[in-house]
Amino acid sequence: MTDPRIPDNTTGQLHRVVIVGSGFGGLCMGARLKQAGIDDFVILEKDAELGGTWRVNDYPGAACDVPSHLYSFSFAQSARWTRKFPSRDELWAYTRDVAARCGLIPHIRLASAFKGADYDEAGGFWRIHTSQGEITSTFLVLSTGALGRPLIPEIPGLARFQGTIFHSSRWDHSFDPRGKRVAVIGTGASAIQIVPEIAPAVAQLDLYQRTPPWVLPRPDRAITPIEQFLLARVKPLQWLYRFKTYLQYESRALAFAYWPQLGAPARAQALAHLRKQVADPVLRAKLTPSYALGCKRVLLMNDYYPALTRPNVHLVTEGIREITPEGIVTNTGETRAVDAIVLGTGFDVEHCLGPVAVRGRGGRSLVDSAGDGGLEAYKGSAIAGFPNCFMITGPNTGLGHNSMIYMIESGVAYVLDAIRQQQRDGWRSAEIKADVQSAYNADLQQRLKRSVWATGCKSWYLDHNGKNTTLWPGFTFVYRWITRRFDAANYIIERS
Fold first, then answer.
1. Which long-range contacts (CB under 8 A, 24 or more apart) does 480-487 make?
2. pLDDT digits (tens, 9 = 90+) for 44-90
3. Using CA of residue 291, residue 297, residue 301, residue 303, what is the dihedral sign?
4. Fewest CB atoms within 10 A around its CB: which of 297, 320, 467, 482?
5. pLDDT confidence of residue 147
């Protein structure tokens, strides 16, 4: 539809909704809009292909640590998963299949990077700046995800290294590790998948560990053709299996968010896993965490520890002093020459939006609105001062115990109901009240104090002030309940 409030210097087309990002969140938002009969929307994707995290992260061994039948949409379940835990390739294929099945392909604008957005207070719409020009919309939905901005460590001499260097999420496929001396910095989720994959091929692998992770066995297996057949033909069985898996993972919230002492059995299992796979007591001591299980992300892997016992693999725990053109100098003064460095250093979750300027009422920047206290949102979605702007998996919607797809679907339902209410009631904009947002987050932070994430370790869940702006402090079904409808009474509603 056209709108007379749009000045002549815009495209002249006012879209109902513009979604930023074509990962799981963006695709879910688009699919639910289509199912609601709303076709006037655009999905912006900065790259030449859709898919989000599971397209970008294509390093060796990339896989998900949530079971396939749970890490998928409830409205687009698949019976064709080949393993209990999906590989990166299967997940990317699934996102492309969802986009096609749900009729989203015509709505996706590839190679159209989001450069920023400005709210037009007089017109009541968003001016959205992209690499392909400016577009306008009534609603702006940010679904860029928290794990899209690589964290590059500030190590002296990093830029002087003359070998091959890249972040795990930007894997250089032109690099052949065979016979090379490779250093992997970091022992997070990506690194422990990469190390077992490349260790047999390299001449030397140095793994730089700052803090050992808690590692549990990965109960992975192939899904048999008979199981696939039954899941495809007997729909109730598919739902039952999904629900059983959901309950199994949801129960972990008891130890993570409410009573950390309940994590003792999992701790014992992780230590037994370590003892079984690492016979050397010196190496085992270096790999034994000293913090509460769950305070950092718990990892699932069967072949990580065995890879570290290989004669060509060396675990370095002394810390890095600097990087030279030829290698890495540890804090003890030892120089270890390498041909390549892989940065398995995670993502800059605190600054996930990067330098992109989203300016709301009064020209206020979304980044500046966070201030030193970190970005806050109401129900992880709406931010005071930014009318008709919503986030999917915004602040404090991340999980340490269950599938993010469940949270994505909950957040999308909330935004969809806002769009429906606007269509039904005819109001121009909705903006969360600042006091409501503040009260919501004060309560949320209070609840986080009793969680395992507040037991004293340093993790990417916390910002530079030690504030947890990442995780949801409880059961996922509670978040589903509070996002079941758009609560317009808590918003400043501006009518046309």
1. 480/406, 480/410, 482/379, 483/379, 483/381, 483/410, 483/411, 483/413, 483/414, 484/413, 484/414, 485/414, 485/417, 486/414, 486/415, 486/417, 486/418, 486/420, 486/421, 486/430
2. 999 999 998 999 999 999 999 999 999 999 999 999 999 999 999 99
3. negative
4. 482
5. 73
Buried b vs exposed e over 420-431: b needs ≥16 C-beta within 10 Å? ebbeeeebbbbb
- Spatial CA neighbour of 61 closest among 244, 226, 197: 197
Q: What's the token pair of residue 393?
A: 């998996």
Please identify which residue in the block is written with the tokens 């309560």: 443
Answer whether 160's CB lies under 8 Å from 484's CB. Answer: no
pLDDT of the residue at 371 = 66
- Mean pLDDT across the chain, nearest whole number? 93
Q: Which pLDDT belongs to residue 273? A: 98
What DSSP letter does each residue of 473-491 carry, written as one string? -S-HHHHHHHTSS--GGGE
Longest dimension (CA), the chain: 74
Instruction: Give the torsion through C-alpha atoms of 429, 437, 252, 404, to 10 deg.
Output: 30
Q: What pLDDT score does 352 carry?
A: 66
149 token code pair: 């901005």
Q: How many helices (H) and strands (E) does the chain have?
A: 14, 20
Domains in the chain, start-ordered, CATH in brackets? 14-149+348-495 (3.50.50.60), 158-213+297-343 (3.50.50.60)
**pLDDT confidence of residue 464:** 84
Strands 164-167 and 133-142: unpaired
Residue 17 near residue 41, CB atoms below 8 Å: yes
pLDDT: is 359 or 371 the higher one?
359
Residue 370, pLDDT > 90, answer no
Q: How far apart are CA 141 and CA 341, in angstroms?
A: 37
Pairing of strands 204-208, 181-185: parallel
Q: Secondary structure of the chain: what % helix, strand, coil (to 5)?
A: 35, 20, 45
Length of the chain: 496
For 70-109, the DSSP string reads TSS-TTS--S--SBSS-BHHHHHHHHHHHHHHTT-GGGEE
What is the per-residue pLDDT for 369? 74
269 forms bridges with which residues in the sheet? none
In which residue are the tokens 């206020």 written? 364
